[in-house]
Amino acid sequence: MIEGFVYLLLFPGLLFQVVCGLAFEWLDRKFLARFQRRVGPPWYQPLADLIKLFSKEDLLPEGANNVVASLLPLLSLSAVLTAGLYVPIAGFSPFSFEGDLIVILFLMSVPTLAYYLAGIVSVGIYSILGGGRSLLQFFSYEVPLLIALSGPAVLGGSWSVERIMASQASLGPFILFQPLGFILAVVGLIGKLKRDPLDIPSAKSEVVGGSLTEFTGTKLALWHLVMNLQAVVGIFLLINLYLGWSQIDHPLVSIAVFVGECLILTVILSGASAIFARLRIDQLAGLGWRILVPLSLLQLAVVILMGV
Amino acid sequence: MNKISIPIGPQHPLLKEPLSMKIDISGERVLGGSLRLGYVHRGIERLAQQRSYTQDIYLIERICGICSHIHTTTFCHAVEALLGIEAPPRAHYIRALMCELERIHSHLLWLGILAKHVGLDTIFMHVWHDREMALDIMEGISGGRISHAANQIGGVRFDLDKEKVAMIRSTIAKLHTQVEGVLDVVENEPTLRARTKGVAPISADLIKKYCVVGPVARASGVDMDLRRDDPLPPYDQLDFPVVTYPDGDAWARTMVRAEETRTSLTLIETILQEMPDGPVTTRAPRRVPKGEVIIRSEAPRGELLYYLRSDGSDSPARLKIRTPTLAALSLLPQQLSAIHVADIPVVLAGVDLCVACADR
Amino acid sequence: MDRIDIETILNKIQLQTGCVCETYAHIENDDTIRIPADQLQAVIGVLMGDFDYYHLSAITAQQREDQTDELEVMYHFWKDTGLSLIMTLPAKLPQLTSIISIIPGADFYEREVAEMFGVTFTGRAETPPLLLPDDWDQGPPFIRDEVNNE
Q1: Pairing of strands C22-23, C120-122
Q2: According to the model, what pLDDT value does residue B174 have?
Q3: In this predicted model, which residue has the larger pLDDT, A244 or B349?
Q4: Which of A194, A192, A99 is closest to A143 using CA atoms?
Q5: Which residues in chain C touch residue B293, judged by CB atoms under 8 angstroms apart?
Q6: Quick one: which of A109, A248, B72, B338 has the most CB atoms within 10 Å?
């Protein structure tokens, strides 16, 4: 009982994930700043921003549905936090079961749909445009992402993330067997997180703020938290599925390796953010269906043949 | 899908200065747009009639922050023509030096804005960092980064000694290396190319019909540069290439400005080498004899025209200013049809808006 | 860059439109031709058709202080050198033909002259204000008898 509370609220639940989310945001902003020859924010900046947002006035345009608009970030937050419970942290996963990968992927799509609804429900012109774009983007990256994340499941012979990770202890990290899959998974993750170069739904110069243009105060703070947590859970998932070396016996080494892999993935995401210009939605659709989907299917076929 | 109308401006992340556009879109296609100016209209032409010529220099410098020097240079040439005096050659060269520095800083500013609009913030940060070098030179020689107060009727306000010239040379050398590095990225980076190539092409015919000037015209193959065609001294003594591109799309507009930045950097070296010695100002009487004159010059955004009429007093009787952005804006609603919503920032960046200039 | 002889232009204008125009010699730097206001479209037709003057730089309007019952409007063209057309209109109810059907780029310049000097341009649907606010109700700002502090 007490154990349950500790797992849910402290580790690997609420507190741990929020801290990781804020740490991710700081690292991301710091790396981006260094790429751009700037100094970057101090370590407490994401926490300060969150606290500041909580203290701001919370208002929506006339005609917006306040109840739904409040529920959407809460729903997304709970979905992402729950998904995070099932992802092993340096080998530790108290809730894993056969099939939890599917559950994680399902829960991770809740914020995406909630983002679209948030745009519709907040009634501003830019919100509706941003929401529509987010749905279009969803159709372009989701299929290759899901296929790329299924590859390790086939290779590991299981739909439980913990078992997939464990099987890499004997076979070696799956990135060596399916490097293409890893790249596709990273691209898909960038699309899911709506980061540069795929931050089309919230492109500041085109739709001002996307779905979240009209959100302020507590609701906006919760949305920021959702975005950061999505990134953290996504990174943890990728590490477990592709780089899973964290099941080393010695716990401290295992944790250090896990943290190191997190940093590498954060650098990759920040670097992609710094180097590329934003794609247009039709360019993304073209990229998704003409290049990413065939490549992901190819990778899956190769993996299936390897398993045989 | 339904047609909806999105407002861009007067306040929008895209706009540095207020401008109101209503753009009709359907899904992700833009159907057309309309434009309303006047948010920064200060009545400069009318105010100029109520001030003396010397006071007007300070007024005119503040028409625009980016191209302030070319405005005062053109105005001073106009007044000097009416007075029948000629500023000393060294003054002309110093004016040209500031003009070229201004051109560089304007194009680098523009490049940063384009990069920001397409989501490539890294280039924006790097380019604006490098642009500081150009602004530092201007501050080192005139005392101001943006408003230099360099011109006075009859010449320029300051001279360049050996130290300043050495400082300019070394900073330009550093700037040149940095700019080459950035332009290398801009020319070869695939995502930037994907966002600008083929976007909103304008034919040379349309340019001529709408009387568009400057880099936008040169990017559609219209060969027009007033530094070569109607040169104010010392441009009649200087040799430099005028770059045109035939395609007329956003990519061509980017490349034309990139090439112009390179040209300006080499031109500054030429100016420093050929600058004659001598005084930098001559005496100019307060009262300007009756007369009318038209002076044209090449601002960073294109042809700048000043019509000045004097009635024998110490105030202008009529000052008419036609800024290049006004010509470019007349083509904007046309450019905004049949593009994607995501191309709107690219098109706006290609026009290189200076709304304060257009509104006066 | 060969200058087009102003005499050639004047002769051609006379040939095509029957209008005898004279040069106005007082603007330095630009050749200027004084034309009657009603011949504007015809003269521009000659300039564009026979001499390839397509670039209109600006349209300037002014009211000279010694002739307050007249408005002067100038059309500044450019091709290798500047060429301006100058015409006089009565200050009360001034009217000019719009040239946006031949030179669409003249739109903004005509609107500015319309709102600043009260000139009506015939042959176009409307001249919405360009720079003045929508609720400006104090008349054309540049007309001397409308503004008190001159």
Answers
A1: unpaired
A2: 92
A3: B349
A4: A192
A5: 27-29
A6: B72
Instruction: Name A21's Cβ contacts closer than 8 Å, sequence gap at least 6.
Output: A225, A228, A229, A231, A232
Binning pLDDT at 50, 70 and 90, where does residue C2 land? Answer: low
Residue A79 pLDDT: 92
pLDDT band for position A169 (cuts 50, 70, 90): confident
pLDDT tens per residue across span A123-143: 888 888 888 888 888 888 888
Total H helices, total E strands in chain B: 14, 9
> Which run of H or E residues covers position B259?
helix B250-274
Helices first, then strands: H and E counts in chain C: 3, 8
C86 contact B CB<8A: no
Number of alpha helices (DSSP H) and beta strands (DSSP E) in chain A: 13, 0
Taking the Cβ of residue A290 and every Cβ of chain B, the question of whether any pair is shorter than 8 Å is answered with no
Classify C87 as helix, strand or coil: strand
Cβ contact B–C (≥3 pairs, < 8 Å): yes
Residues from chain B contacting residue A126 (CB–CB below 8 Å): 6
Asked if residue A197 has a cis previous peptide bond (ω within 30° of 0), the answer is: yes
Helices (H), chain C: 6-17, 40-51, 107-117
Compute the distance between CA of residue A10 and CA of residue A94 in angstroms, rounded to an integer.
Answer: 13
The values of phi and psi at residue B340, to 5°, are -80, 160
Binary contact (A277, B119; C-beta < 8 A): yes
pLDDT tier at B5 (50, 70, 90 boundaries)?
confident
Residue type for position B220: S
| Residue A155, helix vs strand vs coil | helix
Please tell me the distance from the alpha carbon of residue A192 to that of residue A207, in angstroms, as a whole number.
18
- For residue A224, CA distances in Å to A46, A49, A53 come to 10, 10, 10
Instruction: Please state the rounded mean pLDDT for residues C40-53.
Output: 83
Domain definitions of chain C by residue range = 6-91
Instruction: Spell out the residues 6+ positions from residue A1 whose beta carbon is closer than 8 angstroms to its own.
Output: none
Q: How far apart are CA B321 and CA B43, in angstroms?
A: 11
- Report the distance separating Cα A215 and Cα A251, nearest Å: 43
Q: Is the pLDDT of residue A27 over 90?
A: yes
Bridge partners for C27 per DSSP = B292
Between the alpha carbon of residue A21 and those of residues A96, A170, A235, B3, the distances in Å are 22, 31, 11, 40
B133: closest CA among B160, B93, B163, B169? B169
- Chain centroid to Cα B26, Å, comes to 34
* Among the four given CATH numbers 3.30.460.80, 3.40.50.410, 1.10.3720.10, 3.40.50.2000, the one describing domain C6-91: 3.30.460.80
- List chain A residues with CB under 8 Å of B6: 125-126, 129
Q: Are B24 and B3 in contact (CB under 8 A)?
A: yes
Cβ of residue C90 closer than 8 Å to a chain B Cβ: no
Q: Sort out which chain B residues have CB atoms less than 8 A from A208's CB and list them.
A: 12-13
DSSP 3-state of B236: helix
Q: Which CATH number fits domain B40-359: 1.10.645.10, 3.10.360.10, 2.60.120.260, 1.10.238.10?
A: 1.10.645.10
- CA–CA gap between residue B64 and residue B54 (Å, rounded): 18
CB-CB under 8 Å, A279 with B195:
yes
Smallest CA–CA separation between C45 and chain B, in Å?
14
For chain A, give the percent of residues with pLDDT over 90: 19
State the DSSP H helix or E strand holding residue B122, giving kind and residue range, or none if neither: helix B121-142
| ipTM confidence | 0.87
Q: What is the pLDDT of residues B311-347, one digit of tens each?
A: 888 889 899 999 998 888 888 888 888 788 888 888 8
Does the pTM of the predicted model rise above 0.95? no
pLDDT above 90 (res A304): no
DSSP 8-state class, residue B309: E
